[in-house]
């Protein structure tokens, strides 16, 4: 997918993503976890988490809402960036960290992370695209292999608040 096409997708989703994040944060996770995303090719009962991470260059804290799937007790997030030809910033930032924080509904955790490989990746990809079919469409629009990140909770942390974020995610 060209950078121009990627930019057009980001522009159409920007307001929705910001509103979604703000709703999730302001409700303490009571709202925003389950959402109907059929207008963008998703399911009517789609699951979303928040991921909190530190910018590798800025040192600022960012909170990003993402669709997720749960497989084998691990949370799986997909670094699709709508099928863009380059990885999303959140993914590049997580790759530089040993741990990452995530929130599902009203519970938040610190987690280790890993990327599945080989046969395991194929199985996880099939599961994720069954849960969120639009990821398969995104993969078809780019030559890069869209990364999957698996999060394993290691300890609870406080639920995220808007003021935790010291940076504003660029979409």
Describe this structure in words.
The protein has one domain: Pnp Oxidase, Chain A. It has about 170 residues and is of the alpha+beta class. Strand 2 and strand 3 form a beta hairpin. The model has no long low-confidence stretch (mean pLDDT about 90). The chain has helices spanning about 5-25, 90-95, 120-130, 135-140, and strands spanning about 35, 45-55, 60-65, 70, 75-80, 100-105, 105-115, 150-155. It contains 4 helices and 8 strands; from the N terminus they run αβββββαββααβ. Strands 1, 2, 3, 4, 5, 6, 7 and 8 form an 8-stranded antiparallel sheet that branches. Pfam families: F420H2_quin_red.
The first-level CATH class is given as Mainly Beta
Shape: globular
Provide the helix percentage: 25-40%
The tally of helices reads 4
> How many individual β-strands?
8
CATH architect. name: Roll
Would you tell me the overall average pLDDT? 90
Number of domains: 1
CATH homologous superfamily, by name? Electron Transport, Fmn-binding Protein, Chain A
Question: Beta-sheet strand percentage?
Answer: 25-35%
What structural category arises from helix and sheet content?
alpha+beta
| CATH topology type | Pnp Oxidase, Chain A
Largest sheet descriptor:
8 strands, antiparallel
The low-pLDDT segments are none
Distance between the termini: 16 Å
Order of helices and strands: HEEEEEHEEHHE
Radius of gyration: 15 Å
């Amino acid at each position: 997918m060209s950078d121009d096409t990627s930019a057009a997708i980001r522009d159409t989703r920007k307001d929705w993503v910001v509103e979604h994040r703000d709703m999730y944060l302001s409700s303490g996770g009571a709202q925003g976890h389950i959402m109907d995303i059929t207008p963008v090719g998703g399911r009517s009962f789609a699951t979303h988490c928040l991921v909190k991470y530190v910018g590798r260059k800025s040192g600022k804290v960012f909170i990003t809402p993402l669709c997720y799937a749960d497989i084998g007790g691990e949370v799986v997030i997909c670094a699709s960036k709508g099928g863009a030809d380059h990885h999303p910033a959140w993914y590049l930032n997580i790759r530089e960290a040993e741990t990452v924080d995530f929130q599902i509904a009203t519970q938040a955790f610190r987690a280790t992370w890993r990327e599945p490989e080989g046969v395991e990746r194929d199985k996880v990809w099939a599961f994720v695209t069954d849960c969120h079919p639009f990821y398969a469409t995104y993969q078809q629009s780019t030559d890069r292999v869209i990364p999957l990140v698996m999060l394993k909770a290691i300890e609870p942390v406080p639920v995220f608040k808007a003021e935790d974020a010291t940076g504003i995610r660029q979409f």
